[in-house]
Amino acid sequence: MMDRQKLTAYIKAEALRLGFDICGIAKASSAEDETAEFYNRWLEEGNHGTMGYLERNRDKRYNPTLLVEGCRSIIAVAMNYAPARHLEGIADYALGEDYHKVIKDRLFLLLASINEKVACHGRAFCDSAPVLERYWAVKAGLGWIGRNRQLIIPGKGSYFFLGELLIDIELEYNTPYTANHCGNCRKCLESCPTAALREGCFDARKCLSYLTIEYRDELPGKIGEKMGNCFYGCDRCQTHCPHNRFAAPNKIPELQPSPALLEMTESDWRILTMEKYNQLFKESAVERCGYEQLMRNIKARHG
Ligand code: SF4
Ligand code: SF4
């Protein structure tokens, strides 16, 4: 059987071979008390709006060993989703196929690769379970959490999907990332059109990503004025981040926008039919929004 050091190196090499841009490994444990306290306070203040699922399974969220019996290691991966060109209206992460599937499919392949070397049990996650994804990415040495609340990978930026493989074997662990390279920069806070993002605080209820994707009700009165062109998500606090000047277009086939999506014009969006919606967003993360809600957003822009 491979020794632990060789197995760790093999796993990281396999992760890169499968299309991830970076892979680090953290020892599985409970999250630090201050993280749980911060999250509890954030929920108590109601910052999560109608996302009730964030309140549930907090025991598992703070202790990932409850998600996988005998969990020892958290393999944290990140995959670049920066597009070759931004598309008016839609957040960059949603231009291709649904990232949950793209990432998890590769994590299952990574688990299969590991099982070729050593028998182990594991589960793959990507924004699909109560896992503190950015926290574990930091613990696995991938980067730091910026003022925009995104994980920023040094030299690469923040246009990354995060995924985790929780497994029941010991591995060599990365040193947690302790630096923070935001410095005196406030560009993300200044660029947020709704003041959802403030120093040390993020109020999802004001965030355009939340309002356009998660919020099912009628949009608040004046929000259209703040939307600009966006109708699915908002990337302003990332596009203004100087660390994203390093962003290079991703080369993952499933994450490329379809020609039909690239051809859409402003007038096409305004008269979008259900049929066209289904054609454009089959197997896309945009399906989370639904046709009616997407049209609500499209019509609300510019007040
Ligand atoms: S996604 Fe947009 S609205 Fe939300 S915090 Fe970032 S800049 Fe503000
Ligand atoms: S815009 Fe500036 S403050 Fe905000 S995350 Fe990027 S570096 Fe940090």
Bound molecules: iron/sulfur cluster
Strand content: 5-15%
What is the count of DSSP helices, taking H or I runs of 4+ residues?
A: 13
Mean pLDDT: 96
Please compute the radius of gyration using only Cα atoms: 20 Å
Largest sheet: 4 strands, antiparallel
Account of the protein in words:
- With 303 residues, the chain is α+β, with helices and mostly antiparallel strands.
- It has one domain.
- 35% of the residues lie in helices and 11% in strands.
- It contains 13 helices and eight strands.
- The strands form three sheets. A four-stranded antiparallel β-sheet has the order 1-2-6-3, sandwiched between helices. A two-stranded antiparallel sheet has the order 4-5.
- Strand 7 and strand 8 form a beta hairpin.
- The protein is globular, with a radius of gyration of 20 Å.
- The site of one iron/sulfur cluster has 12 residues, from helix 7 and helix 9.
Characteristic terms for this protein:
303 residues; alpha+beta; 4-stranded antiparallel beta sheet; two-stranded antiparallel ribbon; 8 strands; globular; binds iron/sulfur cluster
Task: Give a short synopsis of this structure.
By secondary structure, the protein is α+β, with helices and mostly antiparallel strands.
